[in-house]
Amino acid sequence: MYTYQPHVTTILKFFKIKHCSMKTIKSCVCIIMATLLMGVTYAQEKTVEVGGAAMYPSKNIVQNAVNSKDHTVLVEAVKAAGLVSTLESAGPFTVFAPTNTAFNMLPQGTVNNLLKPENKATLTGILTYHVVAGKLDSKELDRLIKAGKGTAELTTVQGGKLWVMMKGKKIVLKDEKGGMATVTIKDVYQSNGVIHVIDHVVMHK
After folding, report:
1. What are residue 110's phi and psi, to 5 degrees?
2. What is the DSSP string of the chain?
3. Which end of the chain has fewer CB within 10 Å, C or N?
4. What b-and-e string marks burial along 10-40, b requiring 16 or more CB atoms within 10 Å of the CB?
5. Cβ(189)–Cβ(137) under 8 Å?
6. Are 187 and 85 in contact (CB under 8 A)?
7. Phi–psi pair at 172, nearest 5 degrees
8. Where are the domains of the chain?
């Protein structure tokens, strides 16, 4: 099977690189080929669009979330709570990700208040209540719901409980205060887990 291998000179001419030493040429070619291969890899991935941006399964939760225009509040909150490194780690994690609209449904001033440094512990508790250890996609959630005869109980990273059930064909969450949230986009796969977009912020006691 023939594999196309472009000549070094051709590559350099294409990228308008000239008058380089052999060592520099080799470095340039390596960078160029790595960039091209990365582009091919991303192009071949099956992505889900969230907030106007493609979510790549090869990227981690934070790398994808920062590109969603519907999750700017969540990203800002994650940064304020110091959870970036956690959500960039191997995990895996299941994140129920509230949209900006969901955060805006909270009482006026709540979000701004939570983002203050003195409220970091409270903010961290709320955010980690939206995270469950493990990779629970819709198929796994469905299995757990059936095993629980209609309701699956999940333990969050925060330590509280979330209850998952089906309402028609939609996955629905119930929090410890009786609040409900619906999954609007499911199975957004990440390199370190999966995200399910939800339409309300869930709250622990």
Report:
1. -60, -50
2. -------HHHHHHHTT--S--HHHHHHHHHHHHHHHHHHHHHHHS--EEETTEEEPTTS-HHHHHTT-TT-HHHHHHHHHTT-HHHHHSS--EEEEEE-HHHHHTSPTTHHHHHTSGGGHHHHHHHHHTTEEES---HHHHHHHHHHTTT-EEEE-TTS-EEEEEEETTEEEEE-TTS-EEEEEEEEEEETTEEEEEESS-----
3. N
4. ebbeeeeeeeeeeeebeebbeebeeeeeeee
5. yes
6. no
7. -125, 140
8. 8-44, 50-198
What is the CATH number that goes with domain 50-198? 2.30.180.10
Q: Which of 136, 56, 71 is nearest to 101 (CA)?
A: 71
pLDDT, tens digit only, all 205 positions of the chain: 443 344 444 444 544 545 555 555 566 555 656 655 555 445 567 889 999 999 999 999 999 999 999 999 999 999 999 999 999 999 899 999 999 999 999 999 999 999 999 999 999 999 999 999 999 999 999 999 999 999 999 999 999 999 999 999 999 999 999 999 999 999 999 999 999 999 999 999 9
Cα separation of 150 and 122, whole Å? 31
Q: Are 130 and 97 in contact (CB under 8 A)?
A: yes
